[in-house]
Amino acid sequence: MQASTYTRNRFAMDALLRILGKDTIVERITAGYVREQLLKTGDSNGTMNERITRFKALMRWGYVNDYVADVHFLDKLLKFPDKEKKEKLADKFLESTELTTLLKNMDVDKWRMLTALTALSGMRIGEAIALHSSDIDFHNKAIQVTKTYDRLNNIVTSPKTAASIREIYMQPELERLCRQIKAYTLRQKLLYGFETELFMCDDAGKHLNYYSYNKYLSEKTLKLFSKKVTTHFMRHTHVALMAENGVSLDAISRRLGHENSKITKDIYFHVTKKMKEQDNAQFQKVNIL
Length: 289
Known about the structure:
Layout: H1 3-20, H2 31-40, H3 45-64, H4 83-87, H5 96-105, H6 109-121, H7 125-130, E1 136-137, E2 142-145, E3 148-150, E4 155-157, E5 166-169, H8 172-192, H9 210-225, H10 232-244, H11 249-256, H12 262-284
Antiparallel strand pairs: 1-2, 2-5, 3-4
Helix pairs in contact: 5-9, 6-8, 6-10, 10-12
């Protein structure tokens, strides 16, 4: 397990321990008790559903490893209705016009280029930050994704999954952007007098600060669109952009390094459905005879 995954899971388990009570006897836990304790938190249905997912995974792990004798009650532990999640699917990515507006209004070069890089490639932010100059193959028009930057532990590790190790084809506008980034990093090296193997870096040749970038991005999009956009929006935006251009779901998933992702499918089908509705609206106006 990667350090970032361990840290994230540890925080989630600590939260569950507080909610359910550290003195609770595992063998006596029921579905009703878990729901009751979750409701007492006052959290949103989406947050409670995430905790149910993690709780079920923990209990099943305990069952497999003989720490828990029976987990049949988990079938009764149903998730809470989450209309908000369904209604706000469109808010998980930017439309192409919104992306253009955002890039035009970003006044910090490195953040503008990082935003464009993730939106045009579909890379996770950690993958983009971890890129070395040697990972960019202009001759074969390919980006090699073989590592990711773990912001929680400040280390570089292998990507999230085996499927995440991949080659991303550089379409013309992505290639142009990568050449701009290469030139920008070279100027920074000459200006500040540092050496680095990173493709993008800060003014000391070190990894870009994820938190500074996320703060800048959130503040900028809140001002422009009245909603906070996080770094992962760019990955979702890539799905939407590719779907709009007729790229298949399978091809998009391979490009993202996904083995299986519900959110990718949801966004893909949301965009394609919207396009079909727009097409039908045009046909409705046609009067031939």
